[in-house]
């Protein structure tokens, strides 16, 4: 029995592709991060960033927290800040889906919407200005080592255990890059031959949650040496795969999960044998007000 909702973060299911993967010599597993209580993989770093900050005395009940987010991190931070009785302002582009904004507000967070013309970079600039001018503390998932350490402590060990130490390839979309950095660090310590595959959008694609960052906005926690291969996915491929995941595998997920799955399936077709794990980072109900499932 869990004592509180935070005990339910992590230990998410790993399920094997039964339909979409047609290579009999390759096992493809999807790690279903939508089963976290906040609905996404971002529950892990949000908890670790807030709890570690509290433990170190950097965060108190008087702290005014602020964070720029494309959605899932904000929801996770809103939920966890609420549980700890902390005030938080979340900043996101105005074209974010209605469900995300409403969910953050339901958890008690203040939500500020910035111009969609400047995207998540504009939201980051706004949050950083508030830190400098008004004394806010930004958790800053893009530079905070507690982000990737959450995955080093939980996501990586879970995958290693649940594949019975047999994983050969790990596939993850890259946004803040916390998931791929922490999981890569752990898995490479177990077996340096495990291949880490990062997924980015093509230049003409806009996929919520994953980015090809301009140099000046590249997350400081990102270490390119921890990624063996970068694959680029188009918005069309990512959206079509999100639909297929729901229809064929019964996995209801968002666009960035579709992007990772599309590249994992491409990888599966190219291998003679192997065990692939692809991160399904959230649930599809975050996208129902968009035209994704129309």
Automatic annotation (TrEMBL):
This is Cysteine synthase. The lineage of its organism: Bacteria, Pseudomonadati, Bacteroidota, Flavobacteriia, Flavobacteriales. It catalyses: O-acetyl-L-serine + hydrogen sulfide = L-cysteine + acetate. GO terms for molecular function: cysteine synthase activity. InterPro entries: Cys_synth (IPR005856), Cys_Synth/Cystath_Beta-Synth (IPR050214), CysM (IPR005858), P-phosphate_BS (IPR001216), TrpB-like_PALP (IPR001926), TrpB-like_PALP_sf (IPR036052). Residues 6-282 form the Tryptophan synthase beta chain-like PALP domain. GO terms for biological process: cysteine biosynthetic process from serine. Keywords: Amino-acid biosynthesis, Cysteine biosynthesis, Pyridoxal phosphate, Transferase. The modification N6-(pyridoxal phosphate)lysine is found at residue 42. Belongs to the cysteine synthase/cystathionine beta-synthase family. The keyword ATP-binding does not apply. It holds the Pfam family PALP. Its EC number is 2.5.1.47. Pathway: Amino-acid biosynthesis; L-cysteine biosynthesis; L-cysteine from L-serine: step 2/2. Its cofactor is pyridoxal 5'-phosphate. Pyridoxal 5'-phosphate binds at residues 72, 175-179, 256.
């Amino acid at each position: 029995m869990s004592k509180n909702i935070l005990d339910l973060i992590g230990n998410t299911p790993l399920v094997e592709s039964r339909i979409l993967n047609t290579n009999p010599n390759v096992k493809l597993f999807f790690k279903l991060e939508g089963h976290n209580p906040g609905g996404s993989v971002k529950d892990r770093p949000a908890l670790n960033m807030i709890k570690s900050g509290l433990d170190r005395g950097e965060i108190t009940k008087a702290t005014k927290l602020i964070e720029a987010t494309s959605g899932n991190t904000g929801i996770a931070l809103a939920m966890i800040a609420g549980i700890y009785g902390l005030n938080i302002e979340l900043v996101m582009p105005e074209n974010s889906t209605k469900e995300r904004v409403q969910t953050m507000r339901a958890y008690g967070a203040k939500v500020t919407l910035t111009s969609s013309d400047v995207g998540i970079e504009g939201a980051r600039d706004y949050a950083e200005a508030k830190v400098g001018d008004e004394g806010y503390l930004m958790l800053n998932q893009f530079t905070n080592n507690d982000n990737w350490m959450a995955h080093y402590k939980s996501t990586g060990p879970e995958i290693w255990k649940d594949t019975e130490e047999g994983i050969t390839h790990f596939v993850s979309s890259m946004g803040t890059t916390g998931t791929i950095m922490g999981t890569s660090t752990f898995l490479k310590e177990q077996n340096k031959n495990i291949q880490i595959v990062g997924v980015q959008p093509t230049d003409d694609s806009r996929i919520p949650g994953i980015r090809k960052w301009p140099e000046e906005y590249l997350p400081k926690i990102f270490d390119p040496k921890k990624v063996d291969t970068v694959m680029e996915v188009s918005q069309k491929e990512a959206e079509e795969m999100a639909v297929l995941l729901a229809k064929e595998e019964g996995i209801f997920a968002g666009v960035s999960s579709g992007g990772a799955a599309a590249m994992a399936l491409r990888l599966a077709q190219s291998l003679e044998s192997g065990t692939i794990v692809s991160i399904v980072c959230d649930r599809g109900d975050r996208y129902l007000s968009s035209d994704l499932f129309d």
